[in-house]
Amino acid sequence: MLSRNPPRAGSGLAVLVRHNLLLMKREPGPLLSRLILPVAFLTLLRPLYLAAWRGGVTGSQQAVIATLVTFSLLALNISGSAILTERLGRTWDRLRATSLRPPSILAGKAIPAYAVLLAQQAFIIGFAIACFALRVPHPVLLLAVLLTWSCTLLCLGALLGVLVRSLGALSASCDIGGMLLSSMGGALVPLAVLPHWVRVVAPASPGYWVARAMRSAFAGDAHGVLLGCLVLASVAVTCGAIASMRLRGSGGRLVAL
To answer: pLDDT digits over 194-238, tens only?
Structure first.
């Protein structure tokens, strides 16, 4: 006799996570490009950063920071597409009709995307350590920055995923926004050589705070890491709250998009 009890939230969440991982596995192109392009960028442009900083540890660290911040921002579409593809595929209403609670549905979409974003950053750091002898004297501080930054990216991407109406709009928003936030935040080029107005508006970019927090992590400055992580966490909470309000109706159920 079949049980009439609804599936447990934990089992339903696990099924949803596996389903989203399977979707990523079937379309590996975007994921592979987010891993291969940063490595090529770092390999080709690292000599320029070494020359600008006259070699040494700082040049390598700046090359890694520039690569990681830029390409992690360009990977915003990974979390955004997790929601947008459900909308475009007309399967969002099916998710809403299941017995899963809204937090479980959102977590099922978020966990795979978060894992991919974190894996991308770990891959860049690992490549730099293995191939360019990058030194990470304070790995705990750097890990704290990467975990917080991945959460910020996840929430930014989710917000884009509920606001835009097409994959083309999502791609354009991620590409343009990613380059602007990275460049104006001083990740690609030091703020000291940029125009004054850029230095004034730079703290409005999340890229500024993650670059600053990563430099603090390499230097062992726990206070600088804490400040950067707190700002990034506030950005994540704000974007996540807006996306959640857009997704949930007055009764707490997910709304049609």
So the answer is: 888 999 999 999 999 999 999 999 999 999 999 999 999 999 999
Q: Residues with Cβ < 8 Å from 81, sequence gap 6 or more?
A: 30, 161, 167, 170
* Residue 21, domain member (yes or no): no
Q: What is the 3-state secondary structure (H, E, C) of 124-164?
A: HHHHHHHHHCCCCCCHHHHHHHHHHHHHHHHHHHHHHHHHC
Q: Is the pTM of this model over 0.90?
A: no
Closest CA to 236 of 173, 159, 170, 174: 159
In a domain, 234, yes or no: yes
191 domain residue, yes or no = yes
In single-letter form, the type of residue at position 234 comes to S
Structural domains counted in the chain? 1
Alpha carbon 86 to its chain's center: 20
